[in-house]
Each structure stands twice: as structure tokens, then as C-alpha cells.
Specification:
With 298 residues, the chain is mainly α. The protein is built from 12 helices and 2 strands. A two-stranded antiparallel ribbon has the order 1-2. Belongs to the binding-protein-dependent transport system permease family. LivHM subfamily. It is found in: Cell membrane. Keywords: Amino-acid transport, Cell membrane, Membrane, Transmembrane, Transmembrane helix, Transport.
Length: 298
């Protein structure tokens, strides 16, 4: 049982870290608390599901399609919604706009699910993906554990190399520090913002592909995990990518273990979201700036 809990917590931490790092990127660059972030994951789910139905193959094979779908969606959202508001709307207005975007995306996926169900004759709600076993170092492990861990840490490594070893990544960090000065120095801030939204949505979209291997999903699934994503980012320190990753694993472990013990004493697992925020409150009482305050000098 302890091993099952550990596996479940690691898998959930992998997914939550991809989702949290994406939310942090848009928060750091464009200062938007994006309430539609969970819907990017839902889009990734339905891209992989549609492809797996059409080609009759395992959804893992369509991770690249969900990644590309996320890139396109992030670009579209930024250019159509947030770029026209850049420099004109307050942070509160941007937040409310993202809430409106959440409704638009969520109900768009609902419509898409209806169309898919009628055209292909398949269930489009209550979706569960069947996992495979993977032989790893002589042991048979759940494919979800191995593949989600490999993908999550590969993406995080690539993001680190992008931010610290490429000119575009260094430009993005400069924009995060001081967008006005960066623009004066010739950095195309508009392009950097668009790129951050593309990366944010693609990370979330890839994370979404793993969700049906773990839970039953529907067009509202992205919204249902939004609180946990925000809790992880806030716990990490709001403006720290590393903090978001650490916060994601802490929230994942606390939720997984907390739900297990709630079920053991006969309480409903519907209290799961409360566990995230109790954990968040306890950490913020000790470290008001979040976990990033432990290593940041700012």
C-alpha cells in the first residue's frame, strides 16, 4: 500500500509540476493569473483521445500532437485575447478576462465532445485510458510512472537549457526582470510574451494526456484541478519556476496521502481540495514569501 501511495504521489507530482511551471511562466512574463490554464490540459486530453480513436493506438503515442496543439492554442490565446490588452488593462481586468476565457474554452470542449460523440460514435465523457506495463531495470512498472517521470523531467531540463543557454531564453529572463528596459534594448517583448504563452499551454497540454491514465476525465477536468495548480504555484513563491516545481510535488504528496487517510477514517475524499490549501496555509505561516523565500535574496 505504501508503494502504491508513493507511485500515485510521484505521478501526480509529475503532472502538477508541468502544469505549475506553465502557469508560472505566464504569471512571470505577462502578469496574468490565468484561470483558463487547466483548460489547456483538457485540450491536450481530447487531442490525444481523438487521435487514439482515429488510429486505434495508445494515447502515449500522441503526446507530440498534444504538445503542438498546446503551442498553437497558446499562440492563439495570446494574440487574440491578451496582446490587444497589453499595457491597457489592469491586472484585475486581465484576471477576469482569463476567467471568461476559461468558460469559452470549457464550453468549446463540451461542444467538441458532442460533435465527436455523434460523428465517431464513441464515449467522450468519463474517459479513461488503459495503461501499459514497462520493464525498467529488470522490474515491471506502471507505464504511467515511467513515462510521466521521463517526460516531466525531460521537459523541465529542456526548459532550463532554453532559459539559461539560448539567446531567446536569456531574452525571456530579461523581459521577466524588466520588460520596459528590455524593450528599450531592442528585445522583441511581444514575441517573448507569445512564446511564454505557447510554452505554458504546451506543457499543460502534455500533462493533460497523462490525466485519463490516472482519473476519469471530461471537459471540466482541467477546471477541477485548477485550485491545486494555483496552490502549488503560490506555495512555491508565485515568481519562482523552481519554487513551482517543489510546490507541485509537496501538494501532490499531501493530497495523495491526505485522501488516503481520509478514506481510512470514513470521510469523503471530496475534501481533497481543502488538503492543498491547508498545506499552503501551513507553509505560508512559516515562510510568508513561499518556498522561494528560502533561496531567493530578492
Amino acid at each position: 500500500m505504501a508503494m502504491d501511495l508513493l507511485v500515485d504521489a510521484v505521478v501526480y507530482g509529475n503532472l502538477l509540476s508541468l502544469l505549475s511551471i506553465g502557469l508560472s511562466l505566464t504569471l512571470l512574463t505577462t502578469r496574468v493569473s490565468n484561470f483558463a490554464h487547466g483548460d489547456f490540459a483538457t485540450v491536450g486530453i481530447y487531442v490525444a483521445y481523438t487521435m487514439s480513436v482515429l488510429f486505434g493506438a495508445n494515447p502515449y503515442l500522441f503526446l507530440p500532437f498534444s504538445f503542438v496543439g498546446g503551442l498553437l492554442l497558446g499562440f492563439l490565446v495570446y494574440r487574440v485575447v491578451f496582446e490587444p490588452l497589453r499595457g491597457k488593462a489592469s491586472l484585475v481586468t486581465l484576471m477576469i478576462v482569463s476567467m471568461a476565457l476559461d468558460f469559452i474554452l470549457r464550453y468549446s470542449v463540451q461542444i467538441y465532445a458532442d460533435v465527436l460523440q455523434r460523428s465517431l460514435g464513441v464515449y467522450t465523457r468519463g474517459i479513461v485510458f488503459k495503461d501499459v506495463n514497462v520493464n525498467f531495470l529488470g522490474s515491471t512498472l506502471p507505464g504511467l510512472l515511467v513515462i510521466s517521470s521521463a517526460v516531466a523531467w525531460l521537459f523541465l531540463l529542456l526548459l532550463y537549457l532554453f532559459l539559461y543557454k539560448t539567446k531567446v531564453g536569456i531574452a525571456m529572463r530579461a523581459v521577466i526582470e524588466n520588460p520596459s528596459l528590455s524593450e528599450a534594448l531592442g528585445i522583441n517583448v511581444k514575441r517573448v510574451y507569445a512564446l511564454s504563452w505557447m510554452l505554458s499551454a504546451s506543457f499543460a497540454s502534455v500533462a493533460g494526456v497523462f490525466l485519463p491514465f490516472r482519473i476519469t476525465v471530461n471537459p471540466d477536468t482541467g477546471f477541477s484541478i485548477l485550485l491545486s495548480i494555483f496552490a502549488a504555484v503560490t506555495l512555491g513563491g508565485l515568481e519562482s519556476l523552481l519554487g513551482s516545481i517543489v510546490g507541485a510535488y509537496i501538494i501532490a504528496f499531501s493530497e495523495t496521502v491526505g485522501v488516503y487517510y481520509l478514506s481510512q477514517i470514513g470521510l469523503s475524499t471530496a475534501y481533497r481540495p481543502a488538503i492543498s490549501f491547508i498545506t499552503l496555509a501551513l507553509v505560508l505561516l512559516l515562510y510568508p514569501r513561499g518556498l522561494a523565500g528560502l533561496w531567493s535574496k530578492r
